[in-house]
Design brief:
This protein has 218 residues and is mostly beta strands. The chain has a domain at 1-40. It has 3 helices and 26 strands. It has helices at residues 4-8, 13-23, 27-37; strands at 43-52, 55-62, 67-71, 82-83, 88-89, 94-95, 100-101, 106-107, 112-113, 118-119, 124-125, 130-131, 136-137, 142-143, 148-149, 154-155, 160-161, 166-167, 172-173, 178-179, 184-185, 190-191, 196-199, 202-203, 208-209, 214-217. The chain has an 11-stranded mixed β-sheet, with no helix packed on it. The N and C termini lie far apart (65 Å).
């Protein structure tokens, strides 16, 4: 039976048929591949479904036969992005490029995860939040509202990033730290403990803020 890679090299759907016949593969495989190829999708929705927060989600299956996590609709995944394990992507959320959402993490609302970013563990990205580049959000971390996590930044533990806050560069936000308002954490800065960074506060460079510090700037 030809591999997906062989079929993808075919220039037309008719050529796919020829390859399949010459390889002795079954007609059902060819029919299924042809149908999915029309939309250029790297996955399909299976009949396995769950109810989550009042929304019906379907488990996905990728073209190599492996099963992934759950989505509400095909539009939730774009590019070569994948949802894995029991992770969930629903609402108008979009996971694109080579991004991954894994474990029991969820991406919902109008959130976007792109680049080669990862959201995993029990993390949640919602609202209009954006996670991009090679950023990681994991543990029990939450990113929501219009918050942005980019670069190679990590947000993890029980940290929260919300409002119009930005975490970028090689920054780290962890433990139960909160970053919100119009605050920015960038470069190699680290925010941890019970720290609260809000308002228009800027934490950058090699700054380390921990304990129960409160940073606020009008």
């Amino acid at each position: 039976m030809p591999t997906i890679e062989h079929l993808l090299q075919a220039k037309t759907l008719n050529r796919i048929q020829d390859i399949a016949v010459n390889s002795g593969s079954d007609k059902e495989f060819v029919k299924e591949f042809k149908e999915e190829s029309k939309g250029g999708s790297h996955f399909k929705l299976t009949t396995e479904s769950i109810e989550h927060k009042g929304v019906k989600l379907f488990r996905v299956q990728y073209k190599d036969g492996t099963k992934g996590g759950f989505v509400e609709k095909k539009e939730n995944l774009a590019g070569k992005a994948k949802v894995l394990g029991n992770a969930k992507v629903f609402g108008n959320a979009v996971v694109s490029d080579d991004a991954r959402v894994a474990d029991t993490a969820q991406v919902c609302g109008d959130a976007e995860v792109s680049g080669i970013a990862w959201v995993y563990g029990n993390a949640e990205v919602s609202g209009d939040a954006r996670v991009s580049d090679t950023a990681q959000v994991f543990g029990n971390a939450v990113v929501y509202d219009n918050a942005v996590v980019s670069g190679i930044a990590w947000v993890y533990g029980n940290a929260e990033v919300s409002g119009n806050a930005e975490v970028s560069g090689d920054a780290r936000v962890s433990d139960t730290a909160q970053v919100f308002g119009n605050a920015v954490v960038s470069d190699d800065a680290q925010v941890s403990g019970d720290t609260v960074v809000s308002g228009s506060a800027l934490v950058r460079g090699d700054a380390v803020v921990s304990g129960d510090d409160k940073l606020f700037n009008d």
